[in-house]
Description:
By secondary structure, this protein is mostly beta strands. The protein has no helices and five strands. It is elongated, with a radius of gyration of 15 Å.
Amino acid sequence: xxxxxxxxxxxxxxxxxxxxxxxxxxxxxxxxxxxxxxxxxxx
Length: 43
């Protein structure tokens, strides 16, 4: 956790993502995440 210029608290997190020919897969989703684990490319 860090403080911003205006002294607000801020946090960062990252995901591990596998990029494939067909799209990508997020490997580090939590149970409460609302984004899809697999994102496909539309061709």
